[in-house]
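Let us practice reading a record.
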Amino acid sequence: MSAHPSLDPAVVRWSVPADERGDRPVLLLLHGYGSDEHDLFGLVPYLPGGFVIASVRAPLTPPWPMPGASWYPIEGLDGRDPHAVTQAASAVLAWIRDAVGDAPVGVLGFSQGGAVALQMLRAAPDAVSFAVVLAGYAAGGELPGDAVLAERRPPVFWGRGAADDVIPSALVHLTSQWLPVHSDLSGRVYPGLTHSISQDELDDVRAFLDARLAESAV
């Protein structure tokens, strides 16, 4: 498989200008399939102001006529290939090294972005403090960082809709088995929610993120 494209720093949306970021913790937003950096940036008013928020664009282009961008292919025989998810995670981690530096980083991802967020934890346990996974899942296979996660159990919030018919049930089952072993898991299944985000879920995410800020201030 060819090298995964890198993220474009010119299209990143930041919640504050560079001269106001300092060493504040960064919350990185990873959008879903067929979307872009503008999508999840609309959540900024609902998220704690203690974070510097950065929303990035995935580097791949989905097949026509799907708009937007994607982190990895989900079509064809190799759709949702764990190796491709790892490549996407590596591209985001490289961007963090270049653009964020030493500030602590947490990741919030929706759908594909949620899968990449978990894969970032697995690929580089020291680079990411926590993950918020909305309508996402854990990719299969094994990574060297899995043993580290099982020992450290970093905070992870996993929210999904009871009526979500986009993520295959086998991946939901895998995630429900994998996360309790490899994370300090919190989250909720939201009745009636489809492949989307609700206000109840945002309230829960806000509480989770407030707790992370409180921990970092100790």
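A brief commentary: The longest helix spans residues 199-217.
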